[in-house]
Structure formats: C-alpha cells, structure tokens
Amino acid sequence: MNKIGYSYVLLLLLLLTKSQALFAQSRYTALLPEIDKAVPAESNGDLRVAADDKGNETNKSFFKFDFRNLPASAKIETLNLKLYNRPNVNMSDFLVQLITALRGTNEWTGSETGLTDPKLSWAILKNNTEGPIGRAEIRKSTTAITMKLKLPGALKPVTDFLPDGILSLATRSPEKGQDTRFFSSITAETPFNFSKKPKLLVSYEIDPYPFREDWAQPFGNAQHNSLLNWKSNAVVQEAQIRTLPYGGGYLQEIGPTGALAIYKNLPVVFTQATSGTSAVFYVKQLDSKGNVLWQQGVDDVAKSWPLIDEQGRLYYISKSGKLSILDLNNAGNTLFSKSLSEITNKQLTTINNNAAIGYDGTLYLPSDTGIVALSAYPQCKIRWKYEPKTNEINGPVSLSPDESKAFFIAVDTQQKKSRLVVLDNMDGSITATSDYVLDGYQNDTNFYIPAPVVRDNAKVFVLNGFDNGNKLFVFDIDDKGGIAQTQFIASGSSVNTGISQPVVDAGSNVFFVFNSKLAKYNADLNKAEVFEKSAALDNASVLLTNASSHIYATDPYRTPKKILGFQNDTENPNAFAVAVDTAIGNTKKNIVLAPDGTLYTVTATNLIAVTAAKVAANDIVISQTDLKTNTVYRATNSITVEGITVAPSVNTILNSGGSISFKPGFTVTKGAQLNCKTAN
User: Which of 170, 314, 545, 623 would disulfide-bridge 123, Cβ 3.0–4.6 Å?
Assistant: First the structure.
C-alpha cells in the first residue's frame, strides 16, 4: 500500500477532455453584435431593409456575432434575432413586410459600401444555397421583431455549427416598395434606448460539473460566496483557528464587508499598504499557508466585492471608478483597465454598491444614475440600462438561476419606502414591481441596500434591513416575471431586528437567523421553522452553505466572536463553534468557503483560516461507487482509497487529518482532478 504522510500533495491532471454532462442547467443570455451595419449606409447610422417598387432589394442589414466568449461548456439550444424598428407612418394598415435572414461567410468587415461587393454575395438569395434561416413579419403597429433561427437545430456545442465561433447574418426583404428602419448599436446608444440594440437571444445549457478551476461565484446568494456545487461527506465536529500571513498591509473592507475571494481552492485577498510603496493597493493570491504566490497593484481601494468569471478573470472595481480585469491564471496580469465613464459612454462614473456577474460574464453595475448591464469581456458594451425614477436609488442586482430575470431593490429617498423591481434580463424592460412594502434602508444620511436572494426561478427573498430586520418578504415570481404573490414572516420585534439575511443552498433550502436561532423557511406554511436547539447567534450573523446543506456562520457582534457550523437537522443542528481570540481583532461581516472545506474571514490586519480538527468520520474507505465529483472527502484520522479508477469527469478533494492511502490498482484517468491534503 502506498502511504502519503506529508502535509500537502497534489495529484492534478490538466483538463484535456470535456466533463460528462450530468444534469443540464438552462441559461439565457443576449449577444450584442460585433458589427451591425446597413448597406448602403444610412446617414444617421440606422439599420434598414427595403426594396424598390419592382421588388429589387435596395437596402440590407448585416450582423456579425461572436460566440467565443460564451461559457466553455455551453451547448446552444435556440437562437432568436431581435430587432427594434422605427415607426413607419407611410406603411398601410393592411400591408405586411416579410423580412428573412440569411447566414453567410465571415470575410466581410463592415467597410463594404454596396450590395454588389463580392464579400456580400452570400446575402443574395440565389447565391445562398442554405436559404433563409429565419423570418418575421412587419406591420404598421410593429415595434420589434423576433426571428427564430433554424440554427442549431438541436442542442449542440457552438463549434458543431459555427467552427470559428462567428455567426454572420443578413436581413433582407423583396417586398415591393416596403422600407423599414431599425435601431442599430449606434443609434440605440442613448438613455432609454440601450435595450433597443439589435441582439441575439441565446438559450443554452451547461454541465453543472464542468472543470471551472473550482470557480466559486454563485447566482442566488446574497453573500456571493457559497460553493453551491461542492458537497462534503462528513460534518465538522471540532474546528481550529489559524491566522495566516498575507504579505502585510491592511486588509481592505467594502463597507462592513471584508474583501476576500477563493480561486483554485486558495484565498485571494485585497490589501492596502501602510506606507513606503509606490503601489498602495494590491490583489494577492496566497497558498494555504498564507504565503504570497503573486501580487498585482491596482489603482484604488475596491468599491465592490471581488467578482471572478468562469475563466478565472477577476473584476476589480475601484472607488475611483476604474474597472480592472486581472488574469488569475497568469499571476494577476492586467488584461483590461479603463474608467467606467469611458466604458459606459459617461452613463456612470462610479458604482454605489456591489456589482454582480452572470455566468455569461455580464456585469451588473449599480450607480446613482441607474443600473447598467455590461456585456461580457472583451466586448464590454451596454446591453441595457435601468433609468431610476426621481428621488430613487437602487441596490445591487441578483439574477434568477437561469439568468432570464434580474432583481433589485429601489428606494424612494423621499418616502423612505422601497420596492422590489423585476427586469427581463434580455433587454432590461420592467416585468413587475412590488408595492412600496419595504422600508427605506437608511442609516443617518447613508443608504445600505442589500441584494435580493433568489431561490430557483420562482421565489425572491428580501430582508427589510441591510443585515437584519423584523420582516423577511417572500415574492412569488411567475414564468413571465410577474409578482404573483407577496408574503412575509415577522420576528415579532417592534424595532427592525430579529431576522438575518437568508442564504439558499443547492437543495433550495432557505436558512436564516430568526430571533437568535438558526431557522429554515417553510414554504407550505410561510413561516420560520426554528431550530430550537441551535446555538445562539446574533441576528446580523452572516451565513453560507455548501451542497450538503452544511451551514456556516460568522457572528461578529457577540463576545467572544465566533465561527459556527450547523447541519440541516432540527433535532441536532449544532456541528461546531470556535471562538476568535480578542487579540486577533474584530472580524468583518464576511465568510468564504474553499472547496477543501476551509473557511476564511478577515479582520483589519489578520487573515483567519478555520479548519477541521475533528469530523464525524474518523476513518473512511472510498470505493468506486463512493467516489463522487465536486465532493470533499474528510476524515479525522485516515482515508483509504480502494484500487479504483478515477474517471475523467471527477473533480474531488481528499482531506485527512492523518494519512491518505491508495490500494494497488488505483489509477487516475487523464482529465480527472484529484487533490489530496493531509494534516491540517
């Protein structure tokens, strides 16, 4: 038997094969064109489709869409081209203009001036052997058309029907004497018209277990830190605290929240040098012992919690209003750095709350002048903008799990009342707003607005306070984005306290603190199901979960301050509690979970790691049927792995307080990832 007794060993084979699809997850996004242009060009930049009185096509519009920045594991289900037309007062009430779309080659550049240009020959119907791949009708009352394209025909990866990842389209019409103009990316680049940009509506599916370098961004979690796809075989019964070095300086904070992230199972911290350096602000990635692997200077303190996309790019938005994108796979190399004013054409200069990122890479930027949805890097164009009402400020955006809807809280600063706003995320149009049932989220002259917490695609939880409140509102959302029902649960307190911000786990359980006890939402009875035997928690504690419904909490207000673990068991909820020494300092209001089960939090000058000292399993043996992907296997004493074969679809961590052993016959197939860690 091969025994491993040293502190840390990594068995890692780089991904060379695609992971196997298990249970697909549906997503929606909208792609903006890289090029959209009328030929011949219109003087105002509009798109145009027209024919003369004999049916000769005189004006066509051309589009080029880049699919290469969609998630790597995406399989395309449907494509719909959406165009927004100008009113045509000259069109008869009885006429219909048929517009069709042709697919073409990608050699054209957008500099073409006439329809006879050889690079556009594919846009002539008789030259296009494939024929129309989409069609739609224009009437006098039409404001927008949606063409369902024949592509891809069945669920397919992009490269199966677009080998180079680029789709070129032309829209044309032979209808005699008919002439329709559409908004282009240029003419829609104005407030209230951003949503009218031409776009490709994409529905796609993803493998829920792709190798994403254990990317830790969730989608419906207010804290943006739960590892919703990672499970654990055993609950922690005793924990230990270690303070780790991080290269010095102060650890940044974003409001009351410390700036902290996880990438490749290791912490990424954000620091501010105390004195004597040219670069004051840094992003640093550390190893598990706190040693600095690399550091990259940035321009100012962070204004938003850090965001990491599917490909390991970190989005750092500074208080000065600059967006810097760092490559975490290349020592934090700066890929992009521009002011928000330049990126958004002066629609915003800085953000006023935390940004959010979608699985598709779209950035959602809240500001005093509205909310901007910015398309994925490297395009970075405005997809839509929400224009606030007079005396209204908006909170951060949360997305439905399928990303078809966006949610945020809008505060009326005069009435000191708030409402939930629901947007169609494809174009930013409002699908529903609640009544002004929420309070004003004001503390002195400042407004502290939380992110809504979304469960599945059907329920949205909004706390009537930033970190605790006396009411938790529950909004039922229908398929069209309407608010079907509004309910709430109350703590019974006459002041605004008693309930914490909720957190949603992978099984759609909703956990929160209710009158100093852990609780779970009972949807059937619309009530808090209180874990009466749980350890006491401050009502402003911060919670997170994993896919095994293990709940972790940081309680930064009680004395002593504690990190606690719970399990989803009303009769036996308590797993562990570990106190933070007062000498370490005051913990910030955040806690993050690494895939190996390590919890991290910060003070102003300390990075804290919480690891298991004892778990519910002393010794475990892993057979072929036991080994699951996206799982950390933990044991207090030893882990023994039978002579099994680790399949390419497996990404697993073995974490033992003692030893890890492998029996003869054990093999790791190319493409699998197995990370082994011993002796915490």
Answer: 170
Q: Which pLDDT band, with edges at 50, 70 and 90, does 195 fall under?
A: very high
SS (H, E, C) 8-20: EEEEECCCCCCCC
- Of 514, 458, 516, 460, the C-alpha closest to 489 is 514
Question: Tens digits of per-residue pLDDT, 563-612?
Answer: 999 999 999 999 999 999 999 988 888 888 888 999 999 998 999 999 99
Task: At 576, list the tokens.
Answer: 């562990």
- Residues 6 or more apart whose CB falls under 8 angstroms from that of 23 comprise 208
Question: Residue 631 contacts by C-beta under 8 Å, 6 or more apart in sequence?
Answer: 230, 231, 232, 233, 652, 653
CA distances from 585 to 461, 490, 557 (A): 32, 33, 12
Whole-number pLDDT of residue 401:
85
Could you identify the residue written with the tokens 């500074």? 318
The number of beta carbons lying within 10 Å of the beta carbon of residue 274 is 11
Give the separation between CA 617 and CA 626, rounded to whole angstroms. 14
In angstroms, the CA 408 to CA 452 distance is 6
SS (H, E, C) 497-514: CCEECCEECCCCCEEEEE
CA 477 to chain centre: 20
pTM over 0.90: yes
Q: Kindly tell me if the per-residue pLDDT of 77 is higher than 50.
A: yes
pLDDT tens digit sequence for 493-537: 999 999 999 998 888 899 999 999 999 999 999 999 999 999 999
Distance CA 169, CA 131 (A): 12
Residue 161 has what DSSP assignment? H
CB of 528 closer than 8 Å to CB of 539? no
Place of tokens 């052993």: 661
How many Cβ atoms from other residues are within 10 Å of residue 516's Cβ? Answer: 18
Provide the sign of the torsion angle of the four alpha carbons 314, 315, 319, 323, taken in this order: positive
Angle at 658 between CA 652 and CA 664, to 5 degrees: 60
